[in-house]
Amino acid sequence: MIKLLDLLHRWCGGLLGLILTILGLSGAILVHKEEWIGLPHASDVRVTDPSQLGRLAEQLLGGAKGGESLVFASDRFGLVQLREGAHGLYATQRGEVIARWSSLWERPELWLFDLHHHLFTGDVGETVVGVAGLAAIVFAVTGTILWWRTRRTFRFRLWPSRMTGPAIRMQHRDLGIIAAPLLLLLALTGTMMIFRPVAGAVLAPLTFPAAIEADLKAPKFAVEPLAPHLDWQAIISAAHDAFPTAELRILAVPKKPGDPVTIRMKQSAEWLPNGRTMLWFDPADGRLLGSRDATRMQVGTQAFNMAYPIHAGKVGGLVYRLLLTAVGLALAMLGSFSVWSFWFCKKQRQAASRPLPRRARGGPER
């Protein structure tokens, strides 16, 4: 059984190690993106006055044609982001444009996010990332089992003593057991967000999966097409009146006729950085159609909403983000060294085991 686990662990590591390296490195960088974006006014204090936020929305969404989304400033990032497909801009909370882009390649935080979540290949890449996440869970469990046999030889090593197979495996084993608990948590939360059945299985003791799906499903409304000059200030004022203590996070203009205007808000009890408290408005006249209080969702749904902030370091402050950085770098090291030892050290062993020519062994020339 142990030999089978060891074989499974090595082969999966050799095949998926490069993907895990990419996920570890990109995640370690993204967890601090609010600090390294480095644009002017990025450290501005978040505006909370609904009338000022309404004027800002009027300024940036005036003449909206559909598909735009406005992400308001947060406590960690003082700029507003307007996105429309691949195009977008950052603006101050007074409406002054700071930076524009017409492709995600023009902003490192955008292409890094796409790399981490989709491997630059859309839905297919997201599925591959999910499979890699499931593999990481298996690695954490099987690696712990395999480590237990050699626990008495444990020694903390950040780097292998030599770039040979045995030395790399010793470093991999002992670094892996240190990173395993948090790595397991990150792999599990990441996989839960990609594969909803995984989330349903994990949260089933709290809430039936069907109830979670019902909590997260957007309601359907019969609405008219988007009006050319919608009163965005009135919409934001109505959202504030519905949830006076909540933080305004995202205003999304419908992409196609028949969809409502959507606002996401974050209440103090929510961990999700953009919240899951939702409001829907008629795009023709701006009247409130319905709302959903995230704090009244099923227990399992509220637990699911915690997966992303735990995975991305949106809770726990700087200390937790530094821990995630360390685990991301450890994952990158574990993945890259797995690939190296599996594919290259194996060739070295095979070359060393080949018999030498007779002349090299001191035999007579023929």
UniProtKB/TrEMBL annotation:
What does the record list as coiled-coil region(s)? Answer: none
For the keyword Membrane, the answer is yes
Which regions span the lipid bilayer? 12-31, 128-148, 175-195, 318-344
Keywords attached to this entry:
Membrane, Transmembrane, Transmembrane helix
What domain of life is recorded for the organism?
Bacteria
Q: Which InterPro entries match?
A: PepSY-ass_TM (IPR005625)
Q: Protein name, please?
A: PepSY-associated TM helix family protein
The protein's organism comes out as Novosphingobium subterraneum
